[in-house]
Amino acid sequence: MAKKAESITLVDTFQEFKELKNIDRMTLVSVLEESFRSVISKMFGTDENYSVIVNPDKGDCEIQRTRVVVADENLEDPNTQISLTEACKIDEDFEEGEEVTEPVDFSKFGRRAILNLRQTLASKVLELEKDSLYHKYLEKVGTVITADVYQIWKKEILLLDEEGNELLLPKTEQIPGDFFRKGESVRAIVDHVDNVNNPKIILSRTSNMFLQRLFEQEVPEIADGLITIKKIARIPGERAKIAVESYDDRIDPVGACVGVKGARIHGIVRELRNENIDVINYISNTDVFIRRALSPAKVSELKLDEENKRADVYLKQDQVSLAIGKSGMNIKLASMLTGYTIDVYRELEEETSEEDVYLEDFRGDIEDWIIDAFQTLGLDTAKAVLRASREVLVEKADLEEEQVDNVLSILASEFSDEPEFAKFIIK
User: Fold this and answer.
1) What is the rounded distance in angstroms from the CA atom of residue 264 to the CA atom of residue 282?
2) Is 214:144 a contact under the CB 8 Å cutoff?
């Protein structure tokens, strides 16, 4: 009775693998046959004289063993040989040297054999599942997927897809403003798949490709191939620049990407935690492309060194801060987008008749770090600072209102006879 119970459980196990492991018919047959042969080989040292016939539809199998008939006194290996006496019990016509093929009840091999089979089968199925998962996501690299947060750790987030597969979103691949709760859905791109021991699917929300895929989903013209994304530069969570080109003269690529009243781009901005996105027209002319990349600043003159990939950009005083941007972000993105190192220079104003004083002459009266901050913004002289807007001095130079008033008063005292600057002097 015990053996019968084991045999029934074994059949149930086959049926379970067929129904729950999502293995195709041919693979299931191959795995089952290989598992049986592995166990038989361990038990008898060889499986060459065995035939394994698997029926995956019924969840059972048939094992047949072929043995050579030998004289009773010559029987040495019961696994590959059968005595003439035993052979005649099967069929009286058998003679020495002939082969006898007969079915084998695997359950009669004992409980240990059945347990070995189960372990071997489970191990091979697990390998198949790993291999299947690896190749499934290898084909999805570069595509956007949605998964649910399962566990939040310090350095990464564990997510589960709709089939319960584990995915990883490392901290380095998260946008700085990202904050997720358990059970929340997350959209990210499949960045790469590792398969050292177990398949490890790595997601990313900081990849340039993630931004590109979001545009492809939101802008039909990009999905249809009428508009192409040529280049992307991005500082995740802060700002991005994207260059687009249209193959149809009737389509404005920038307008199509932004949408009516920003309808198309707003969804992307929200997904990227309010990351500011500048969309510009791509052009193969490097000079014009760099000018567009520095938008919203207007470039007065541009000198290219194509061999060294450098560009000297000259701007009017009020455009310097726009070109540089907050924390130098605008010029950094422009360099990333164009592939050129961009150096910004303030265009000399035609004020040769006016007297001015370089900021260097005020060291001692004004703290060095403040002068350095002004010079970084392209403000090299006293009048340049006095004519700059207070917003630039406060935000770009990172000064307090009181500090700005004090500096302006010191600088304006050099031009106390000029009404334009007298208003800055603190009395």
Assistant:
1) 19
2) yes
Rounded Cα gap, residues 276 and 327, in angstroms: 14
Q: Which residues pair with 279 in a beta bridge?
A: 242
68 within 8 A of 99, measured Cβ to Cβ? yes
What is the C-alpha to C-alpha distance for residues 192 and 5, in angstroms, rounded to an integer? 47
In DSSP notation, 340-382 reads -EEEEEEPPPS-TTS---BGGGGBTTB-HHHHHHHHHTT--BH
Count how many Cα atoms sit within 13 Å of the Cα of residue 424 in the half-sphere of its side chain: 28
Task: State which H helix or E strand residue 412 sits in.
Answer: helix 401-412
pTM of the model: 0.66
Instruction: Name the token pair of 112.
Output: 């240990």
* DSSP 8-state code for residue 392: I
pLDDT per residue as tens, the chain (427 positions): 334 434 434 455 555 555 555 566 677 777 778 888 888 888 888 888 888 887 766 666 788 888 888 888 888 888 888 888 888 888 888 888 888 888 877 766 777 777 877 787 778 778 888 888 899 999 999 999 999 999 999 999 999 999 899 999 999 999 998 999 999 999 999 999 998 888 999 999 999 999 999 999 999 999 999 999 999 999 999 999 999 999 888 999 999 999 988 899 999 999 999 999 999 999 999 999 999 999 999 998 899 999 999 999 999 888 888 899 888 899 999 999 999 999 998 875 544 345 788 888 888 888 888 888 888 777 888 888 888 877 778 877 778 888 888 888 888 888 877 777 777 776 5
Contact 40, 47 (CB under 8 A): yes
What distances in angstroms separate CA 6 from CA 108, 118, 209, 284, 400, one per listed residue? 10, 11, 54, 74, 83
**Interacting residues of 108 by C-beta distance below 8 A, sequence separation 6+:** 3
One-letter-per-residue 3-state SS of 106-173: HHHHCHHHHHHHHHHHHHHHHHHHHHHHHHHHHCCCCCEEEEEEEEECCCEEEEECCCCCEEEEEHHH
* Rounded Cα gap, residues 339 and 358, in angstroms: 34
